[in-house]
Predict the structure of Demethylmenaquinone methyltransferase.
Amino acid sequence: MESFSQQISPTPDQIKALTVEWEGERFPDGRPKVSDEYLERLKAISVEEAWGILRNKGYNNQFENDWIILDENEVMTGRAVTAQYMPFREDVNNLVKKNGKAEGRSQSGGTNSWPIDGLVDGDIYIADSYGKIADGTLIGDNLGIAIKTNSNRGVIFNGAVRDMAGLSKIKGFNLWIKGHDPSYIQDMMLTTINYPIRIGRATVLPGDAVLANKWGVIFVPAHLVADLVINAEFTALRDEFGHLRLQEKKYTAGEIDSRWSEKIKGDFMSWLNTKSDLPMSKAELDAYLKDRNW
């Protein structure tokens, strides 16, 4: 009889198959490596703009809101490392620990440290712990320090943490969670790392680019990041120009809020040429305008 043994994490080739539309650089574990430049530019993009672009491309399930946030004034972007937790079942948990040992994972402490051990700079630890709050706290301040040290980022949990006071003292660490509680993690288990997971309304894949701010969290498929960023940046420039001209009473609201005339397009292009703080390079802008249908 053939034995069954599920890996804790997919192989690099399996992650490549899962994210086949990504054509750029990858991590050794197979995850897409969205560039640091795009992650930085993603910070300036609004949730609504990112959501609209993804929805127009048929990606309707990439947003989740209603979070408790440690520092609402900070924006966090990074690359997703996913983890799945389930209610405890002894036979499954025994298999998880057996497979983890065979994969060389740490045997000291709980399995909830395993996703943290593999984090690298720029990663965001994304976990679905099915919204469990009491006895569902995935981390406290010790694991929080480890996360910040390994990734320079924070966490997004469909679940809870403990020791918010201690976590709040970790410089540069932030979190988006559904609750917090003084209890320790009990009666639940880690099942997988870097498989697809559900975070509320959203489906998240390993290597997704994450945009988290006080208005919610967007999970951007890696292969759509570059297109989303340039589109959102251009739309922000259009909005800035439109607001300026409305304040100047140069055009009516109807003229700005509908398809632009050639006169307005020409005015906009002249205005663009005067700006010294464009979010994209001139070459990127020229390439984008060449294909844009106004």
Q: What stands out?
A: Residues 153 and 173 are 6 Å apart (CA to CA). The longest helix spans residues 225-247. The first strand starts at residue 63 and ends at 64. The chain has a mean pLDDT of 95.
